[in-house]
Design a protein that fits this description.
Helices cover about 20% and strands about 35% of the residues. The protein has about 375 residues and is of the alpha+beta class. It has a 7-stranded mixed sheet with strand order 10-11-12-13-9-3-14. Strand 16 and strand 17 form a beta hairpin.
Length: about 375
């Protein structure tokens, strides 16, 4: 298998991970079983290598104003050592990517999806004024996610009051003897932390977390957890042909904050109302609704599945689907195309599951 590797690749090999290609990266799909890894996240503590995601530092005079004009959310509301979920949009309102922006004491840190690392960097640099510097720190910083109701108990942190870290808050500290930036964020619907670590020391911290009781988890368990929590995945549940309102992310768009890329188009989209919407589907059938599967109502097609899986935790099949706006309110029974024919699912509210996260989690990929 040819692909880029994170600094934690030796740990994945030692743990017997099943490796797959993901956005050009050789990443662990699972170590034991998806069910066991998901149970660790939902009932204890799981650890994920997410170092394939992009990490940029934005600094220099006017950095705050530059970012404010690039993203849909309002960074002026972001205090020191806080993070905010955000979207980059095109002029026509299509979503370039979803990301998290962190305000550190000295600069701004932006974390983007692995598949969009190069695209997002080009997008930001193409729009940045000369005084703003955008530095790709992805190679020097590893990113590890510790997730689950026992995450705080498992975390070997020093020189920091972990309990005082608010949801989407961040702090500098020491983890397993290594200086790190800790943020109370994640992509599973559970409480937990994402650790920004020097790449050379990532293996030491990973081993310490495993020794403390965290179970290594792969991309498959992460995807099941994020879908249960109703969190969107770029490239599946949204893309550059989808605007935030159609993805159920209109709450991230702050039209009153002032100019930003896509503002005029999003103003029009809001006034017109979405042509389609993202809904949750739940079925007792064990057949998994796959991406692209047709969703029908009566004798007509109303949309398609964007993400689907079987949830061992909930013991049912779940999915998100993009359908005609207002065509399928909660409680509606719809037909869903499956590999074995056609199944029936009920439209339900999202998230499908609420975990130990300290408040309702925004979407992040």
């Amino acid at each position: 298998m040819a692909g880029r590797r994170t600094p934690l690749h030796p740990q994945h090999l030692a743990a017997g991970a099943r490796l797959v290609d993901f956005a050009g990266w050789e990443m662990p799909q699972q170590y034991t079983s998806v069910r066991e890894e998901q149970e660790a996240v939902r009932g204890g503590a799981g650890i994920f290598d997410v170092s394939h995601m992009g990490r940029y530092e934005v600094r220099g005079g006017g950095a705050a104003e530059f970012l404010q004009g690039m993203v849909t959310n309002d960074l002026s509301r972001l205090g020191p050592n806080r993070a905010q979920y955000n979207l980059l949009c095109r002029e026509d309102g299509g979503i370039v990517d979803d990301l998290v922006v962190y305000r550190t004491p000295d600069a701004w840190l932006v974390v983007v999806n692995a598949a969009n690392r190069d695209k997002d960097m080009s997008w930001l640099r193409d729009h940045a004024p000369a005084a703003v510097e955008i530095v790709d720190r992805s190679e020097e910083l590893s990113l590890v996610a510790l997730q689950g109701p026992r995450a705080q108990e498992v975390l070997p942190a020093e020189d920091v009051e972990v309990d005082a870290i608010r949801y989407f808050g961040m702090v500098s500290g020491v983890v397993a003897g290594i200086s790190a930036l800790l943020s109370r964020t994640g992509y599973t619907g559970e409480d937990g932390f994402e650790l920004f670590l020097p790449a050379a020391d990532a293996g030491r911290v990973w081993d310490a977390l495993v020794e403390a009781g965290a179970l290594p988890c792969g991309l498959a368990a992460r995807d099941v957890c994020r879908l249960e929590a109703g969190l969107r995945l770029y490239g599946s549940d949204m893309d550059d042909e989808t605007n935030p309102y159609e993805a159920g992310l209109g709450w991230t768009v702050k039209l009153k904050k002032g100019p930003f890329i896509g503002r005029e188009a999003l103003q029009r989209a809001r006034e017109a109302g979405p042509r389609r919407e993202l809904v949750g589907l739940r079925s007792a059938d064990r057949t998994i609704p796959r991406h692209g599967a047709a969703v029908g109502l009566g004798d007509r097609a109303i949309g398609s599945v964007t993400s689907g899986t079987y949830s061992f935790w909930l013991q049912c099949a779940i999915a998100m689907a993009s359908v005609e706006a207002a065509a399928a309110p909660v409680g509606t029974r719809v037909d869903v195309e499956t590999r074995s024919g056609e199944g029936v699912a009920e439209v339900v509210s999202m998230p499908f599951y609420r975990g130990s996260v300290r408040q309702a989690a925004p979407a992040q990929s």
